From TrEMBL:
Positions with biased composition (Acidic residues): 23-58
Organism: Rotaria socialis
Span list, region Disordered: 16-58
Protein name: Uncharacterized protein
Domain of life the protein comes from: Eukaryota
Amino acid sequence: TAPSILSLIQTIKELNERQSNDLDPDDDVDDDDDDDDDDDDDDDDDDDDDDDDDDDDN
C-alpha cells in the first residue's frame, strides 16, 4: 500500500500546482459570503425599525 499512498500524494501535489480553469475563483466564494452578511444586516435593520414604531405608539 505504500507505493499507492505515495502515488496519491504525488497526484495531490500535482493537482494543487495546476491552475484553475476559473478566471476569478475567489469571486464566487466572496459573493456568497457577502450576500449572507447583507441578508443578516437587513434583518437587523428591520427589527430596529419595528422597535421604533412601537415606541411611537406608546
